[in-house]
Sequence to fold (286 residues):
Amino acid sequence: MTASLDAVERTALLTAALRAAESKRPDRLYEDPYAAALAGDIGPELLAEVRAATFPPGRERTLPSTPDYNAIRTRFFDDYLQDAARDPAMTQIVLAPAGMDSRAYRLDWPSHIRWFEVDRPAVLAYKEEQLGAAARPRTDHRRVAVDLTSPDWERDLCDAGYDPALPSTWLLEGLLYYIPEPDTHRILQRVAAISAPGSRIAADIVNAAALTLPHMRGLLDVFSGWGCPWLFGSDEPEELFARYGFDVRAVQPGEEGADFGRWPDPVPPRSVRDVRRVFFVHGKRS
Fold:
C-alpha cells in the first residue's frame, strides 16, 4: 500500500516516525501509541536520513533540530485544538490534510465535536489499514477521501456532514511549504469561503529565507531527493492570512507558548533578516 503514496504523502510517514520516537522519550511532550504502526517500515528510514543530515557525526549541528521541532509542533497544535474544542459553539474540526494524524484516537474530545479528516484516498486507505479494526476514534469521526487540489472537495466535505454556516476549526499542518505559492493562496481562499465568522485556523509555515539559505541545503536536499522540495515561505504570515479574513498571530518555536522546554536554538527577533524561521500561525476569521 505504501507504494501508492506519492512523495509528499510519504512525508506523513516521517512525521509518524518522529512522533513514535518522541513517545519513547522520558521527557516526551505527548504520547502517540499509534505512531509506530502508522510510520510503517518506511517512516523510520526517512527519519534516519533526516537525522544523518541534521546531526552529522563529528560536526556541529547547523540545521534546525527536526525531532525537537516536530515535538513542539505536535504539542502546540494538540493544545490549540483542545482549547478550540472546549468552546461549546465550536462543533467542527477539520484536518486538511490529515496525513498520519491520530489526535482523534489518542486524545479525548467533547461530545459536541464532529471531526473531519481530509486527504487523498490512498493516504486514508493506508492509514485505515495500518490502524486496524481495534483502533477506535474518541469522537464523531468522518473521513473525506479527496484531493485538496480537486475542483470540488468542498462538496465532499459538506456531504460528510460539514456545515459551512457553523464555526469550524481548521488545521493545515505540514502542508504550506510543500505547495507552490498560488496553491497556498487558493487553499486559504477556499477554506475562508466555507468558514463561518468565528472560525479558527492554525498552520505551520516557514519564511522565505529557509528555502534559500546555504546552511539549510542539507535538509532541503533531503526533501528534494525524496521528490517533495520545499516550495513556499512567507516572511509576513499575518498579512498572508489577513488577505483571506483571518486575524492571526505567528509564534516561532522557542518563543513563549511554543517552547515546552525543548527548543535548542536562539530565536532571533523578527527584525533580523536572512535567518531561517518557522511559524505556528493561529487565529480567527472575523
Remarks:
- The chain has a mean pLDDT of 96.
- The CA atoms of residues 85 and 110 lie 7 Å apart.
